[in-house]
Each structure stands twice: as structure tokens, then as C-alpha cells.
Write a structure and sequence with these properties.
It is an enzyme of class 3 (hydrolase). GO terms for molecular function: magnesium ion binding; trehalose-phosphatase activity. Pathway: Glycan biosynthesis; trehalose biosynthesis. It comes from Lysobacter arseniciresistens ZS79. Belongs to the trehalose phosphatase family. The chain is α/β, with parallel strands linked by helices and about 260 residues long. The protein folds into two domains: about 15-95 and about 175-245, HAD superfamily/HAD-like (Rossmann fold, 3-Layer(aba) Sandwich), CATH 3.40.50; about 100-170, Alpha-Beta Plaits (2-Layer Sandwich). The chain has seven helices and twelve strands. It has helices at about 45-55, 65-70, 100-115, 140-150, 175-185, 205-210, 235-245; strands at about 15-20, 60, 80, 85-90, 95, 120-125, 130-135, 160-165, 165-170, 195-200, 215-220, 230. The strands form two sheets. Strands 5-4-3-2-1-10-11-12 form an eight-stranded mixed sheet, with helices on both faces. A four-stranded antiparallel sheet has the order 6-7-9-8, covered by helices on one side. Helix 3 (about 100-115) packs antiparallel against helix 4 (about 140-150) and helix 5 (about 175-185) packs parallel to helix 6 (about 205-210). The relative contact order is 0.20.
């Protein structure tokens, strides 16, 4: 579905929502490398207040590993789907770990040798997935894509997922929509209105799931087309929206 000329902002956050948040490009501005991102002042406090306001029904849904998410948002350890759902931490803190195939380690070594020829290119090992980044050197896009295409037939039950300045090899049947659907089947998310906020092509799977369940999909940025019916301009606008959520005491999440 194509976006109309303008999309309305999302409604104010309600206490009957199950709120799912992408990270890079949504909560955080992009950086040239995954380790270069900066967490805005006040964001961790806002997320902590929202988690309490939603009775725990707040989760991060990201391509990053859970350990990276915990480092970024310390001391919070939120329910989360990392690696597009390959890693999942439930509300009770139980973690479902990924199991990487041996061939992925071989591909990792080959990709690193290739990336060394293009300063600024990056190979990111995510255990069961491998992300090839060229945001820091656009000239690396074609050779990295060709390497991923050549490796795919040898990685059974894997597929390619394109993103903004990156292509990722990851198992079939694992995307952000699957992760959100799984979390919606368990407490404290079950029975609530699902809301997902994201910016990238990889977030469209999540948008589809929440729309099918009568929820709300919120696009960050102006990428087109999208299934989302609401829009926020950038991560700064996302933070303002989250911070404006009322708390049980009637104050905003930053009060």
C-alpha cells in the first residue's frame, strides 16, 4: 500500500497497548557502524516509565543481538526480540538462544577478507545471522551483495534480507513479524492492542502483523511504500511521542 501525501501522527499511548519498538533508525539515529550509535539523554528513563505504565507490555524488536541491546539501554533488560526474532527474551527473562550453522563461520571469514578491501565496510557477526554493511563505503555494496548471493545456495533454509545500507543472511521464517506474533501469544502482551514503530524494510513484516490484528503501525521517516498508517519524522519525534505518554499518576513519562 502506497503512503498518501501525508500520514497522521500516532495517537497518544494508551495503557491497553502492547508496544513494540525497533531500535536503529527508530529509537536511535543511524551511525556509520552499529557501535557508533548514541542513546539520547532521557530515553532510558522514558522506556522504564513506559514499561511500568504498560504493565510490562513493552518490547524491543531489533536486528541487534540481545547483549547489544542490554548494553545500549542499561540498566534496563526489557523483553526483546534480537536478530529479528532468532534471539528472544520473554517477560520472565528466559532467553531462547540461536544456533548458528558451521558454514556461516566460513562465510564470515571470507566476508571479512573482502571488506578489508573497502575501508568503512563492515561484517557483523550476529551468531545465527551475518550482516554485510556498506554504509561507510558505498563502493562495497556490489561485491558484498555478490558474495551473499553466491553463499545463499550453500546455506539451506537461509534467505537474504535487504536493509538500509546492509544485506543480511538469516534463517527462513525469522522476521520481526514472526517475533511480534510470538510475543503477542504470551503474557503480558496477549489480549492487548499491538503497536509497532519502525523505519526500515525489515519492519514491514511487523507492520503487517499488527495491522492484521487491528493494531497500529507507525513508520519513522519517509520511506515509501509502507503498510504503516501513521508516521513520525525521526527518532527525536519518536522520543517526544514516548515521553508524552501519561503515567498512572497522570503525569508524562518524563515527569
Amino acid at each position: 500500500m502506497d503512503l498518501p501525501a501525508t500520514l497522521p501522527p500516532p495517537p497518544a499511548i494508551r495503557d491497553d497497548w502492547a508496544l513494540f519498538l525497533d531500535v536503529d533508525g527508530t529509537l536511535l539515529e543511524f551511525a556509520d557502524t552499529p557501535t557508533g550509535v548514541r542513546v539520547p539523554p532521557g530515553l532510558v528513563d522514558v522506556l522504564a516509565a513506559l514499561q511500568q505504565h504498560l504493565s510490562g507490555a513493552l518490547a524491543l524488536v531489533s536486528g541487534r543481538r540481545l547483549a547489544q541491546l542490554d548494553a545500549l539501554f542499561a540498566p534496563l533488560r526489557l523483553p526483546a526480540a534480537g536478530l529479528h526474532g532468532l534471539e528472544r527474551r520473554h517477560a520472565d527473562h528466559h532467553v531462547d538462544p540461536p544456533t548458528p550453522p558451521t558454514l556461516l563461520a566460513i562465510l564470515h571469514r571470507k566476508a571479512e577478507l573482502l571488506a578489508m578491501q573497502y575501508p568503512g565496510a563492515l561484517v557483523e557477526d550476529k551468531a545465527s545471522t551475518l550482516a554485510l554493511h556498506w554504509r561507510g563505503n558505498p563502493a562495497a555494496e556490489q561485491p558484498l551483495r555478490e558474495l551473499a548471493d553466491a553463499a545463499l545456495p550453500w546455506l539451506h533454509d537461509y534467505r537474504l534480507q535487504a536493509g538500509d545500507g546492509v544485506v543480511e543472511l538469516r534463517p527462513v521464517g525469522t522476521d520481526k513479524g514472526d517475533a511480534i506474533a510470538a510475543l503477542l501469544g504470551e503474557a503480558p502482551f496477549a489480549g492487548r492492542v499491538p503497536v509497532f514503530t519502525g523505519d526500515d524494510l525489515t519492519d514491514e513484516h511487523g507492520f503487517e502483523v499488527v495491522e492484521q490484528r487491528g493494531g497500529i503501525a507507525v513508520l519513522v521517516g519517509d520511506r515509501r511504500p509502507s503498510l504503516a498508517r501513521h508516521r513520525l519524522a525521526d527518532p527525536a519525534a519518536v522520543l517526544r511521542w514516548l515521553a508524552a505518554a501519561p503515567t498512572p499518576a497522570g503525569r508524562s513519562a518524563t515527569a
